[in-house]
């Protein structure tokens, strides 16, 4: 369910905001799997949000996020799980605590819309590192500006990234992580892609498929026996698909 559809159910009835309570939820997020695996950023966010809740005498009713999700759109599993919890919870939730507004969303106008719909239900978004009272007109304006700047910074970062990718392609360099079976090696300031031991095994897989007509399951078994574990989906994407 998208956030827009979800908030249509929120918006039924009076638009008057309800009285604020003292219950909150915490939402943490990082942008990449590598950051999530490292967990330092997530742990820092969580601790800072918990301290913020303690100082504000807010009772934490739930934790959401805790993983990597893109903030470019709001079609996020953990994000929508939080919105569903806010809608269904019997306890009155009054605050969503995030480390910074860009952890909540970088979608600009859509983030403003979501925050506004939440506020109509008496729920405000609180940023630990960008404290504003979003329940007031001036605080809401300041938070909206922060949402817009988060989207702007995200667009700038994407433009710089794409410019770098374009330059690498013009130099004839592979711009992303190498495919399975290859490593990127740097020598004298130059990057090159070289075949590694797994690539040599995959070369055998092509030979088995073409010369011996073996099934993907048999290829997977042979590769595993030589130290390369690979899924059926992955091997089917690499070698020629079997005709049904």
Key phrases:
244 residues; Rossmann fold; two-stranded antiparallel sheet; 6 strands; 16% strand
Detailed description of the structure:
With 244 residues, the protein is α/β, with parallel strands linked by helices. The protein has two domains: 3-155, Resolvase, N-terminal catalytic domain (Rossmann fold), CATH 3.40.50; 197-238. Helix content is 51%, strand content 16%. The chain has helices at residues 3-10, 33-38, 40-55, 77-88, 101-104, 109-120, 137-170, 197-212, 216-225, 232-238; strands at residues 23-30, 59-68, 93-98, 124-127, 182-187, 190-195. It has a four-stranded parallel beta sheet with strand order 2-1-3-4, sandwiched between helices. The protein has a two-stranded antiparallel sheet with strand order 5-6. Strand 5 and strand 6 (190-195) form a beta hairpin. Helix 1 packs parallel to helix 4. The longest helix has 34 residues, at 137-170. The protein starts with a helix and ends in a 6-residue tail after the last helix. Mean pLDDT is 78; it is low at 13-19.
Q: Biggest sheet: strands, sense, closure?
A: 4 strands, parallel
Low-confidence stretches: 13-19
Helix fraction, binned, reads: 40-55%
Mean pLDDT figure: 78
Structural class: alpha/beta
Instruction: Name the CATH class of the largest domain.
Output: Alpha Beta
Distance between the termini: 36 Å
Number of helices: 10
